[in-house]
Design goal:
Layout: E1 12-19, H1 25-38, E2 44-51, E3 57-60, H2 67-74, E4 80-85, E5 94-98, E6 101-106, E7 110-114, H3 124-132, E8 135-136, H4 141-148, H5 150-159, E9 167-171, H6 172-177, H7 179-187, E10 194-198, E11 208-210, H8 213-226, E12 229-234, E13 238-246, E14 252-253, E15 257-260, H9 268-272, E16 278-280, H10 287-303, E17 309-317, E18 323-329, H11 339-346, H12 351-371
Parallel strand pairs: 1-2, 1-7, 7-8
Antiparallel strand pairs: 2-3, 3-4, 4-5, 5-6, 9-12, 10-11, 10-12, 13-14, 13-15, 13-17, 15-16, 17-18
This protein binds adenosine-5'-diphosphate and magnesium ion.
């Protein structure tokens, strides 16, 4: 608990931000519905902040519960008012626009960003929150940005001798101007199949499994639509293992879970539209592999300076039984039935407890940040 609140009986003021400009806008709204339902009205005063696909920030003009989320879902913004969070910490809290005049609306103690992907999970929003000097749930700028970039993430894992699959990084400009050299670089990674993916994205958007040169060409062009950095990776017959990590300087790992995708791989369709995709909780793994997954997950989390939470995803080669880190999601799908929360539930922590804990961790991290000296005077 932060100093000025301990002892005081007032409720913590939480701003929950959802929606956003990424392709995962709709996923964010589902996660936010669960978070909003779990925030105890006895402990918290909640302000909903909805970001539209165009990037407009809205809050409720009437303060009726639920209406920002509902308005984003229905597209009817009549009861909303535009809002802003200033990067100037001497003008803290949320502001509303009255015409072109800014007016202070509400002070906030903690922001809970429930935004997946670009402009939410990638360090950009976190930069705004750092500038505003407010406590927020989840990883900071660095952990978010490195967690989001699959190529840089792998480089950091390699530097820590943590296992990742062979890969190459190609720039969109290379793919556009010298496709022969781009194809040759990609084919040098490993024999087919290869996986081609945008370096900074999620939900399997733009990801393809390619089995030939012509597939590869198509895959590179497709991935380059969504990012200027494209990752090409050795493809393996994989079991998909995920583990939830929670904490700041002393993180803990949950039991691992396993995904059985309905399709050849865990595509966008298999994730969100095919209800034959299944979660196994806990994953049927030997105690040794379970311990190894948890240990590597914690090392990866700390290597990129995560905070609050992350879901760490692995690929386990069905043939060789080798384990590889795949990616870290710093704001994983966060409904009460998402893997992240279900793994904690199986490890003994309920969803409302998890939400409370994340808010505590946000305040703890802010207190640490406040201790850092910014001025050097002798
Ligand atoms: N190298 C690989 N080998 C086998 N399957 C892979 C590989 N890379 C990705 N996949 C499959 O593609 C899915 C999406 O890839 P991933 O890197 O997790 O991207 P996203 O961030 O979009 O989830 C994975 O869940 C897995 O099913
Ligand atoms: Mg993934």
């Amino acid at each position: 608990m932060s100093g000025q609140l301990s002892g005081a009986q007032r409720k913590l003021r939480i701003g929950v931000i959802f929606g956003g400009r990424s392709g995962e806008h709709a996923v964010s709204l589902m996660s936010a519905r669960s978070v909003l339902a779990a925030l105890s009205a006895e402990k918290y005063e909640v302000t909903q902040i909805g970001i539209t696909l165009d990037g407009a920030w809205w809050v409720s003009a009437t303060h009726a519960p639920g209406d920002v989320l509902e308005a984003l879902l229905s597209g009817d913004h009549r009861h909303l008012t535009p809002a802003a969070l200033l990067p100037d910490p001497t003008h803290s809290g949320l502001y509303g626009f009255r015409g072109s005049v800014l007016e202070a609306l509400v002070e906030l103690d903690v922001i809970f960003p429930v935004l997946h992907g670009t402009f939410g999970e990638d360090g950009t929003l976190q930069g705004v929150l750092e500038m505003a000097d407010i406590a927020y749930v989840g990883a900071g700028v660095l952990g978010s940005a490195v967690g989001m970039d699959k190529a840089l993430f792998k480089d950091v894992m390699r530097a820590h001798s943590l296992p990742v699959l062979e890969s190459a990084l190609l720039l969109r400009s290379e793919i556009e101007t010298d496709i022969e050299s781009a194809l040759a670089k990609a084919e040098a990674v490993a024999p087919f199949p290869l996986f081609v993916k945008p370096a900074n994205l999620g939900s399997s958007v733009g990801v393809s499994k390619v089995r030939s040169r012509s597939d590869l060409l198509e895959g590179l062009l497709e991935a380059a639509r969504y990012d200027r950095r494209v990752l090409v990776e050795r493809g393996i017959p994989a079991r998909e293992i995920e583990v939830s990590v929670l904490g700041n300087d002393h993180p803990q790992a949950s039991l691992p879970g396993e995904i059985i995708p309905a399709e050849d791989f865990y595509s966008y369709n298999a994730k969100y539209h095919d209800d034959r995709s299944r979660l196994l909780i806990p994953a049927p793994l030997s105690p040794e592999i379970t311990a190894q997954v948890q240990e590597i997950a914690l090392q990866a989390y700390q290597a990129i300076d995560c905070a609050g939470m992350a879901r760490v995803d692995f690929l386990l080669d069905k043939e060789s039984q080798e384990l590889y880190l795949s990616e870290v999601n710093t704001i994983p799908g966060f409904t009460s039935i998402s893997m992240y929360a279900k793994l904690w539930e199986a490890s003994g922590m309920s969803y409302p407890e998890l939400v409370d804990r994340l808010i505590e961790l946000a305040l703890e991290r802010k207190a640490q940040r406040d201790r850092t000296e910014r001025r050097y005077e002798r």
